[in-house]
Design a protein that fits this description.
The chain is globular, with a radius of gyration of 19 Å. By secondary structure, it is mainly alpha-helical. It has one domain: Na+/H+ antiporter like fold.
């Protein structure tokens, strides 16, 4: 268990915390605001380009076969999660400033890297995890913005946000187009991407950190830490724990009800219970006004750490159990 906890407290998590601290103390000001804004937009484009280049055609073909499992993951990710988000965001104890972020968190696709890693540690069906997580992210590029438009009232995230032509154009140009171009260029650059995983990882994570710094800097300038108290953070942490516990229990119960094999049940457990920071941060940057992005992604960043710690412990314990 100790090794599992150490494993999730990787440098990237510390860098995320450090980025938030720097943005809180030294947010972009003056001429630096548009510079960081353009850089963050470029980072979003690059991030989704790399996501497209990583997704193999084989994963798409293979994903169509185990349809019961992938449909179950889809139902949890884009069905159960949003329903829970709607319920939690309307609780009287949830402060208004973080209600939108809590709901947005539940509308995101699953993670890819950690879902696959935890499935492997737990001795689950890794190939199916690759397919489920990849499909979740592929579908999420269009479905998450649609759910934001459908479920999040414009008053929460700005007049016309998520429904205007400008927002649609941003989604197409910053998310979908780079993803499609990256995937179409996979035959030419796929080998290079595979050989330079460390460099790609640096670019991937660097893009996220840049967007986080820009978003939190803008939010701090708008009075983020005056609107969110220590008590609010405590409530948010408790709700994130509750949300994860409900989904973990629901996915394991659904796997039993569907009579999935142990290996596939592990896939549903981990792919169904995750929410992607790598997709969520740039999507928030496209879908919400700059001054509100920091507040919107705060629940996501907190949930991300909780899910890593909890799932690392669960994966280690499942991996130590005898099969059967």
């Amino acid at each position: 268990m100790i090794r599992s906890l150490i494993a999730v407290f990787e440098p990237f998590i510390l860098m995320l915390v450090g980025t938030v601290l720097v943005a809180s103390l030294l947010p972009p000001r003056g001429a630096g605001i548009p510079v960081f804004g353009y850089a963050a937009d470029a980072g979003i484009v690059l991030l989704f380009f790399l996501h497209g280049a990583r997704l193999s055609r084989e994963a798409i073909v293979e994903g169509a076969r185990n349809w019961r499992l992938h449909l179950a993951v889809f139902a949890v990710t884009f069905g159960l999660f949003p329903l829970l988000g709607l319920g939690l965001a309307r609780l009287p104890i949830v402060p208004a400033p973080i209600a939108a972020g809590l709901l947005f968190l539940t509308l995101l696709p699953s993670t890819i890297q950690s879902s696959i890693a935890f499935t492997s540690i737990a001795r689950g069906n890794v190939a199916a995890a690759v397919c489920s997580a990849s499909f979740s992210n592929l579908i999420g590029i269009l479905l998450t913005p649609a759910l934001v438009t459908l479920l999040m009232h414009p008053a929460v995230h700005g007049p016309g946000a998520g429904t205007s032509l400008a927002a649609i154009r941003s989604i197409l140009l910053q998310l979908l187009l780079p993803f499609v171009v990256g995937h179409l260029l996979r035959p030419a650059i796929g080998g290079w991407v595979a050989r330079h995983k460390q460099l790609v990882s640096v670019v991937d994570r660097g893009s996220i950190l840049l967007v986080v710094y820009t978003a939190f800097g803008a939010a701090v300038a708008e009075g983020l830490w005056h609107r969110v108290s220590v008590a609010d953070l405590a409530i948010l942490s408790s709700l994130c724990l509750l949300l994860l516990a409900i989904v973990l229990g629901a996915t394991w119960g659904a796997a039993r009800a569907l009579r999935l094999s142990r290996e596939d049940a592990i896939v549903l457990l981990f792919c169904g219970s995750k929410k992607s920071l790598a997709s969520g941060v740039p999507m928030a940057g496209v879908l919400f006004p700059a001054a509100q992005v920091g507040l919107v992604i705060l629940p996501l960043m907190l949930f991300h750490q909780i899910q890593l710690i909890a799932c690392a412990i669960i994966a280690r314990r499942l991996g130590e159990r005898p099969a059967g």
